Amino acid sequence: PRIVVLVSGSGSNLQALINATRERDFPGEIVAVGCNRPDAYALERAKQAGIETFTVDHTLFDSREGFDVALKAEIERHSPDVLVLAGFMRILTADFVRAFHGIMLNIHPSLLPKYTGLNTHQRALDAGDETHGVSIHFVTEDLDGGPVIAQAEVNIASDDTAETLAGKVLTKEHILYPIVLRWFCEGRLQLLGDQACFDGHPI
Ligand code: GRF
């Protein structure tokens, strides 16, 4: 299967996926990496791995729709079987999401449905939560609201800060995303209606 990854920042999740997909038995190949920011370090990681990149700079568009149309055209040039959002920091329009229904995955640094949106680590600390974590979900029109596929937990220590918590969560992200992507490439994950399924069983 052909994997396209969308990034916006440092690309540590992309790096984890590059490392995993290079393993001989991995059932998929990253054919392109797309980014909305020309200066993102994630693009450097892709280039160093010999992976084709494309940039659709959102500051050059005067509408969200215009950006999404251009991004969709670039992505479709690569005929993806799966579209992986990895630290991609744009809210996508419903039309865009519909075009990739059932083949678009996202990783979010919280135990969804808690803390959709931004600043998830500080919010978990402020709430006095004892656990936090990461969720990987199918992307639907609800921001960070699609059916959850897998989660990983971290314990919140009394001396944790948003920064230390982010580090713990990021470590789990780098472990979990390659596992979920492997399952998808093996055909073991489907979005049936609004239900995520693993080997045909509702998750
Ligand atoms: C991190 O906050 C991570 O939790 C989230 O996206 C941000 C950057 O990730 N998924 P990356 O290093 O660009 O993959």
TrEMBL record:
Origin species, per record, is Marinobacter zhejiangensis
Q: Which Pfam families match?
A: Formyl_trans_N
PANTHER family reported in the protein's UniProt record:
PHOSPHORIBOSYLGLYCINAMIDE FORMYLTRANSFERASE (PTHR43369:SF2)
Q: Which residues bind N(1)-(5-phospho-beta-D-ribosyl)glycinamide?
A: G11, S12, N13
What GO biological process terms are annotated to this protein in UniProt? Answer: 'de novo' IMP biosynthetic process
**Which residues of the sequence carry a binding annotation for (6R)-10-formyltetrahydrofolate?**
R64, M89, R90, I91, L92, N106
Q: Which UniProt keywords apply?
A: Purine biosynthesis, Transferase
User: What's a GO cellular component annotated to this UniProt protein?
Assistant: cytosol
EC class of this enzyme? Answer: transferase
The record lists the catalysed reaction(s) as:
N(1)-(5-phospho-beta-D-ribosyl)glycinamide + (6R)-10-formyltetrahydrofolate = N(2)-formyl-N(1)-(5-phospho-beta-D-ribosyl)glycinamide + (6S)-5,6,7,8-tetrahydrofolate + H(+)
Look up the domain of life of the source.
Bacteria
Q: Where is this site: Raises pKa of active site His?
A: D144
EC number(s) reported in the record: 2.1.2.2
Active site (UniProt): H108 (proton donor)
Output this protein's name. Phosphoribosylglycinamide formyltransferase
Q: PROSITE patterns annotated for this entry? A: GART (PS00373)
What region holds the Formyl transferase N-terminal domain?
2-180
Q: What is the recorded function of this protein according to its Swiss-Prot or TrEMBL entry?
A: Catalyzes the transfer of a formyl group from 10-formyltetrahydrofolate to 5-phospho-ribosyl-glycinamide (GAR), producing 5-phospho-ribosyl-N-formylglycinamide (FGAR) and tetrahydrofolate.
Q: In which pathway does it act?
A: Purine metabolism; IMP biosynthesis via de novo pathway; N(2)-formyl-N(1)-(5-phospho-D-ribosyl)glycinamide from N(1)-(5-phospho-D-ribosyl)glycinamide (10-formyl THF route): step 1/1
Q: Which NCBIfam families match?
A: PurN (TIGR00639)
Q: Which HAMAP family match?
A: PurN
Keyword tRNA processing carried by entry: no
Gene Ontology MF terms: phosphoribosylglycinamide formyltransferase activity
Q: Which InterPro entries match?
A: Formyl_transf_N (IPR002376), Formyl_transf_N_sf (IPR036477), GART (IPR004607), GART_AS (IPR001555)
The similarity annotation says: Belongs to the GART family.
